[in-house]
Design a protein that fits this description.
The protein is mainly alpha-helical. The protein has 3 domains: 91 residues, no CATH class; 166 residues, UbiA prenyltransferase (Tetracycline Repressor, domain 2), CATH 1.10.357; 128 residues, Four Helix Bundle (Hemerythrin (Met), subunit A) (Up-down Bundle), CATH 1.20.120. Helices cover 63% and strands 3% of the residues. The chain contains 16 helices and 3 strands. The protein has a 3-stranded mixed beta sheet, with helices on one face. α9 runs antiparallel to α10 and α11 runs antiparallel to α14. The longest helix is centred in the middle third of the chain and has 28 residues. The chain starts with a strand and ends in a 5-residue tail after the last helix.
Length: 407
């Protein structure tokens, strides 16, 4: 619906208060429509009259003079504007209440939360949980509903812990991420700072609440150690912000991925789900050996794409100290060592011929893929080095599936 907004002289009364702009019938509502007849003839639509005074001033008497803008005719020396503007439609729903707009907003929010939690670490955590849980399987009958419930008991609390760990890092690293990772939700402004803090705090509370309900001590210690280490890594307070110390950071990543996660996940399944005595089988020791090399490589390679932002904000990572090229090839060495350990252990430890073949060949293929990928890396290009870092995680996903085969 379209409307005519009539701008009257300051001594005119408002239409909304019962004032009459047509004194002694000199002007009528129809005359206003005549002033805008070129619109009414073209559209044949209803109009809404809006009164908008240009300025407030009281004068003696109620003299209503208009300056009409039509064919150049002037009624008085006071100017009035006839403004044509679309009036809101009362037949349509507002944008906020539109189901499609609500669905779209919800979808965008979930996508931003998905990016907020670093999905690749969650995928690795999921596969790592499954891999460590399979190490506790002794018989085919162990693959039961209880086994899958045990996996969910680890995955769900750790999902919220991952939200906390990755989120708190972004909350304290907004300025750094604007340089290194401007696509992240907080750095790009897709999520507000308040929303980020709310997600972080809520995730930590929910994670420990679920752990308390489940009642597994290995699960609780996994969450407690993880939250303590990575809170100290990110929070910018005295004696914290441990990311400034590269050796300490490497130790955290090494301890988390090589020891804390596989051991606590295995013990959760072994002692809490299957109710068996705690032990450390040969397969678990092999997993720890493989993940030790791989975790060191990840700890050193994670900062290769972020050297520029880290240096500007006083974060002297290994990549910043050693240089990107040197750090890169040290990482490649540790990754290839991990795959070499995988091949050797598969040949020595596996009791089944087909397990030896699949596990050994699988690690050889993964090592070859990594080596070929190094030939296409441009160390001066952050996108190229970041692609290498993500490729490492993809190789880790596959390796997790091979670890339970070495028994």
């Amino acid at each position: 619906m379209e409307s005519i907004s009539v701008l009257s002289s300051p001594n005119a009364r408002s239409l909304t208060t019962g004032g009459n702009i047509c004194h002694n019938n000199h002007y009528s509502i129809s005359s206003i429509y005549n002033a805008g007849s070129f619109v009414s003839k073209a559209h044949k639509r209803n109009f809404q009259i809006e009164y908008k005074p240009l300025r407030l001033q009281q004068e003696a008497g109620l003299n209503h003079h208009l300056k009409g803008i039509e064919g150049g005719h002037t009624y008085n020396n006071r100017r009035h504007v006839v403004n044509f503007a679309p009036a809101p439609s009362y037949d349509s729903e507002s944008y906020a209440s539109n189901p499609k707009s609500i669905l779209e907003s919800s979808k965008n929010f979930l996508l931003n939360v998905y990016a907020f939690c670093y999905p690749y670490t969650m995928i690795a955590r999921t596969l790592g949980t499954i891999s460590a849980s399979l190490l506790a399987v002794q018989h085919v009958s162990d693959i039961s509903p209880r086994f899958f419930i045990g996996i969910l008991q680890v995955l769900v609390p750790h999902f919220f812990m991952d939200l906390y760990v990755n989120g708190i890092n972004q909350v304290f690293d907004i300025e750094i991420d604007k340089i290194n990772k401007p696509y992240l939700p907080l750095a790009s402004g897709k999520l507000s700072y308040t929303t980020g803090v709310t997600i972080v705090a809520t995730s930590a509370i929910v994670s420990f609440w679920l752990s308390g309900i489940i009642g597994s001590w290995p699960l609780f210690w996994s969450l407690a150690i993880c939250s303590t280490l990575w809170s100290g890594y990110s929070i910018n307070l005295p004696l914290l912000r441990w990311k400034r110390f590269p050796k300490l950071v490497a130790t955290f990543m090494f301890a988390s991925w090589a020891y804390i996660f596989p051991i606590t996940f295995y013990l959760h399944m072994q002692t809490f789900v299957f109710r068996r005595p705690a032990n450390f089988p040969r397969s678990l020791i092999f997993s720890i050996a493989f993940l030790s090399f791989f975790a060191i490589g990840i700890a050193l390679s994670k900062d290769i794409p972020d050297v520029e932002g880290d240096v500007k904000h006083g974060i002297h990572s290994f990549s910043a100290r050693l240089g990107q090229k040197r750090a890169f090839w040290i990482c490649v060495f540790f990754f290839e060592m991990a795959f070499g350990v995988g091949v050797l252990t598969s040949l020595v430890s596996s009791s089944s011929l087909w397990m030896k073949f699949v596990s050994g060949l699988g690690h050889i293929i993964l090592g070859s893929i990594l080596w070929n990928h190094t030939k296409n890396i441009d160390l001066t290009n952050p996108d190229s080095t970041r692609s290498f870092y993500m490729q490492i995680w993809n190789l880790m996903y596959v390796a997790y599936l091979l670890l339970p085969l070495a028994r």
